[in-house]
Amino acid sequence: MSEWMSEIEWQDIMRQTITLLIAYVLALPIGWNREQEERSAGLRTFPLVAVSCCGFVQAAEGRLGEDLGAMGAVVEGLITGIGFIGGGAILKLQNSVKGTATAASLWGTGAIGAAVGLGAYEVAIVIALLTKATLTFLPHFKPEEAERSLPERAPDGADTDSMEDR
Questions:
Q1: How many separate domains does the chain show?
Q2: Contact status, residue 69 vs residue 85, Cβ threshold 8 Å
Q3: Measuring CA to CA, how many Å separate 108 from each of 32, 47, 123?
Q4: More confident call, 165 vs 22
């Protein structure tokens, strides 16, 4: 057996695997909702975001120890990275914006994964429940218009509503 294999703490692997599975399970209902709504990110993306964020925190925690500043930098990087992924889910159409709820849900799912990785399970559970509830129940209160309308723009980029005042 290789030397590095003998140094592996199998109990740690089991603990970390269980933690990653918790992040995965908490993200599944959110991904399922987005999949059912046929959004740009869904059943695969949301659990992957949660597990990845949890994994980054776990890996950093194992190497950084009690250095809160360094851990803060890791979490800051996660926030930025997930924001970038969420930005890819937003589509600006000619007169509307689509995907903002999916983008915000991706960001929240990153927070779920980070919270689980930090051992803040109660925070992760509350974020998961509130995100799922928001995606499930609040669309019923939204007007029939599927997405937000943007003001029409003239070719020079000016708002056409304000052109009437010229």
A1: 1
A2: no
A3: 15, 12, 11
A4: 22
Residue 88 covered by a domain: yes
Asked if residue 127 is part of any domain, the answer here is yes
pTM above 0.90, yes or no: no
Q: Is residue 93 part of a domain?
A: yes
Reduced 3-state DSSP string for the chain: CCHHHHCCCHHHHHHHHHHHHHHHHHHHHHHHHHHHCCCCCCCCHHHHHHHHHHHHHHHHHHHHCCCHHHHHHHHHHHHHHHHHHHHHHCEECCCEEECHHHHHHHHHHHHHHHHHHCCCHHHHHHHHHHHHHHHHHHHHHCCCCCCEECCCECCCCCEHHHHCCC
Find the domain containing 60 and state its range.
Answer: 9-163
- The predicted-structure confidence for 115-134, as pLDDT tens digits, reads as follows 999 999 999 999 999 999 99
Tokens of 31: 């991904």
Collect all residues with Cβ–Cβ distance below 8 Å to 39 and sequence separation of at least 6.
89, 99, 101, 102
Q: What is the pLDDT of residues 21-67, one digit of tens each?
A: 999 999 999 999 988 887 778 889 999 999 999 999 998 987 887 88
Does residue 1 fall inside a structural domain? Answer: no
